[in-house]
Design a protein that fits this description.
It comes from Delphinapterus leucas (Beluga whale). InterPro entries: EF-hand-dom_pair (IPR011992), EF_Hand_1_Ca_BS (IPR018247), EF_hand_dom (IPR002048), Rcn1 (IPR027241). Keywords: Calcium, Endoplasmic reticulum, Glycoprotein, Metal-binding, Phosphoprotein, Repeat, Signal. This protein is mainly alpha-helical. It contains 16 helices and four strands. The longest helix has 20 residues, at about 160-180. The radius of gyration is 24 Å and the shape is globular. The model is unreliable at about 1-35 and about 315-330 (pLDDT under 50).
Length: about 325
């Protein structure tokens, strides 16, 4: 990237840094604006609508994703079955000829996270400098911090110096956590976990630790009530606190501080920002297996899935007579 003056470069560098590296945490919110720390990935499935029992729309969007489900709606039954057969081969990760509930759940979760993988694909070439389809820590460090490392005097005694000095070791720690095989290079899956740790189970501890470090201003390893509130709200003037701040203080005392010692430890932070909600992907996978498992062996063959293709990919022209309720011009 060509250098466009110190101010221009710093703005771009910090913009990239904050956009990719500070996720899922955020910069301080404006006064009186509440910040949301609870991690609820956009990729998660919502509740199954009660009116969807016949149209299979929820099943289609869970199994294919919203965009691909629209594409399948325009295909003939023969084309849908052909494509579904190819998808089944990909879902059967161990190649044993059966699709288990766990394999289906893994597929559904991946489909729902597709926008994340699309995002990684867009930035991949910016970091994979030697084009070996891997990103080493050195490649990422040079792409993100290269200018700072090469020109340290420009950052001396500035807030940017403090930011880069803090973020570099934090990035390296996160990179190592994402690098499951420890070879100091990231595959696409590992790099996705690095950029979006909130989406990966093995990265949850990093999410908790980074949240603690962001909020724990006195460095005692805990989050007290004042730090908890300061992360959401800051006084510009010595006026009264908004009602929602008072409500958050009550939330802290009653629901966040589980052991009632006046502060949050890592376990309490995890309970706060990573709530153990209902697993919609697991429920959908069980539903698809139950509805398609003819011999009740709790796993599906490709034949069983293709026999019930309408539930998995379907076509709006064949879903329970939906074609009778629409004009032909709309199909």
């Amino acid at each position: 990237m060509a250098r466009g003056g110190r101010g221009c470069h710093l703005g771009l560098a910090l913009g990239l840094l904050l956009a990719l590296v500070l996720a899922p945490t955020a910069l301080r919110a404006k006064p009186t604006v509440r910040k949301e720390r609870v991690v609820r990935p956009d990729s998660e499935l919502g509740e199954r609508p009660p009116e969807d029992n016949q149209s299979f729309q929820y099943d289609h969007e869970a199994f294919l994703g919203k965009e691909d489900s629209k594409t399948f709606d325009q295909l003939t039954s023969e084309e849908s079955k052909e494509r579904l057969g190819k998808i089944v081969d990909r879902i059967d990760s161990d190649g044993d000829g059966f699709v288990t509930t766990e394999e289906l759940k893994t597929w559904i979760k991946r489909v729902q996270k597709r926008y994340i993988y699309d995002n990684v694909a867009k930035v991949w070439k910016d970091y994979d400098r030697d084009k070996d389809d891997k990103i080493s820590w050195e490649e990422y460090k040079q792409a993100t911090y290269g200018y700072y490392l090469g020109n340290p005097t420009e950052f001396h005694d500035t807030s940017d110096h403090h930011t880069f000095k803090k973020m570099l070791p934090r990035d390296e720690r996160r990179f190592k956590a994402a690098d499951l095989d420890g070879d100091q290079t990231a595959t696409r899956e590992e790099f996705t976990a690095f950029l979006h740790p909130e989406e990966f189970e093995h990265m949850k501890e990093i999410v908790v630790l980074e949240t603690l470090e962001d909020i724990d201003k006195n460095g005692d390893g805990f989050v007290d009530q004042d730090e908890y509130i300061a992360d959401m709200f800051s006084h510009e003037e010595n006026g009264p606190e908004p009602d929602w701040v008072l409500s958050e203080r009550e939330q802290f005392n009653e629901f966040r501080d589980l052991n009632k010692d006046g502060k949050l430890d890592k376990d309490e932070i995890r309970h706060w920002i990573l709530p153990q909600d209902y697993d919609h992907a697991q429920a959908e996978a069980r539903h698809l297996v139950y509805e398609s498992d003819k011999n009740k062996d709790e796993k599906l063959t490709k034949e069983e899935i293709l026999d019930n293709w309408n539930m998995f990919v379907g076509s709006q022209a064949t879903n329970y007579g939906e074609d009778l309720t629409k004009n032909h011009d709309e199909l």
